[in-house]
Amino acid sequence: MLHSHLTTLNAVSLVISTFADEGLSSEPLLAGSGITQADLCRPDIRITTYQEMQVCANAVALRKEVGLQLGRRMHVSSYGILGYALLTAATFGDALRLALEYPALLGTLFELKLIEDGQRVWFSASDYRDDEGLRVFNAELCLGSLKVICDDLLGKPLPLLAARFAHAAPDYQPRYHDSFSCALAFGLADDNAFAFERSWLDQPLPLADPITHRDMRERCRRQNIEFSGRQAWLGRIRELLAVQLDHAPSLAVIAQKMNCSERTLRRHLLATGSSYQQLLDDLRFERAKQLLQEDSLPIHRIAEALGFSETASFRHAFIRWSGVAPSQFRG
């Protein structure tokens, strides 16, 4: 799982706004994510990909083809400083290669590559390592948003030669043509990718500006260092908690193991938009869902494995995380 990675609220805000257009409140979409309505108004907040994927899972439960819809709405402006750096690059190829330098700023769950294939180039997303149940959703969202980014950079639609997806064709396959106007292939490759003429890489961008671009590149470099540092802290804290969920170490103990004060540790967690309790709840929820798949394991034993002294406390916590009781989740 990549749940220790940090990302912005861009995708979550997009999910919320997409369903809000249809009159649905944010409450069922935020259920179990630990993200509050107030958080949506904080532009500087950072969340984990676990939180983001919980919101996406709620969205998919409501509409399984929502990944395609969200991908078409994920414009280059959604990526903040990186988006401006891409828009002001000299050529289309320069912009795409810059995007590949900063996957953390893109918030992608895939390894992105440009694969040259004769006179065409494949923009490829592969090596997915997150929630298997959201693999198709994430492939649709990723490739759809990459196509929109390309169109935004050029100021016009990028003509596609072909597109391929690692998953089998879903029953809503005709809707793919709204995002990819080209020949489509499903289940025949290890990656998700679309192809375009290689000559497009040399296309000058309409908003190119060398001075602004240099400034934005430097800001991207600094932001990436900040993201990487925070991710390292978050990942280490999660490791320390994950191995002792039945007797979770206190914040003081974790701080000692990380050679810092409690105050410093709280400050780092606050900078990620998280807290000790949020991380503990995230890990407990992940583990609870795994253990509930084992039908022979009594719920009171699951509660003990997660560090709850009473089954009722675990039940109340699980309802808060997921919206349903453990027995209902087990089905």
Shape type: globular
What is the strand tally? Answer: 7
**Terminal residue distance:** 24 Å
Radius of gyration: 21 Å
What portion of the residues fall into strands of 2 or more residues?
Answer: 5-15%
Number of domains: 3
Question: Strand order across the biggest sheet?
Answer: 3-4-7-5-6
- Count the DSSP helices: 15
Poorly predicted runs of 5 or more residues:
none
Please state the structural category.
Answer: alpha+beta
Q: The biggest beta sheet, please?
A: 5 strands, mixed
Helix content: 40-55%
Helix-strand topology string: EHHEHHHHHEEHEEEHHHHHHH
Mean pLDDT: 90
Describe the structure.
The chain is of the alpha+beta class and 331 residues long. The chain has 15 helices and 7 strands. The protein has helices spanning 10-20, 27-30, 49-62, 66-73, 80-87, 92-101, 103-106, 135-154, 210-242, 251-257, 262-271, 276-291, 299-305, 311-322, 326-330; strands at 6-7, 47-48, 111-117, 120-126, 162-165, 183-186, 192-197. The strands form 2 sheets. A 5-stranded mixed sheet has the order 3-4-7-5-6. Strands 1-2 form a two-stranded antiparallel ribbon. α5 packs antiparallel against α9.
Keywords, separated by commas or semicolons:
331 residues; alpha+beta; Arc Repressor Mutant, subunit A; 3 domains; two-stranded antiparallel sheet; 10% strand
Concise overview:
By secondary structure, this protein is of the alpha+beta class. It has three domains: 1-63, no CATH class; 67-208, no CATH class; 211-330, Arc Repressor Mutant, subunit A, CATH 1.10.10.60. It is 51% helix and 10% strand.
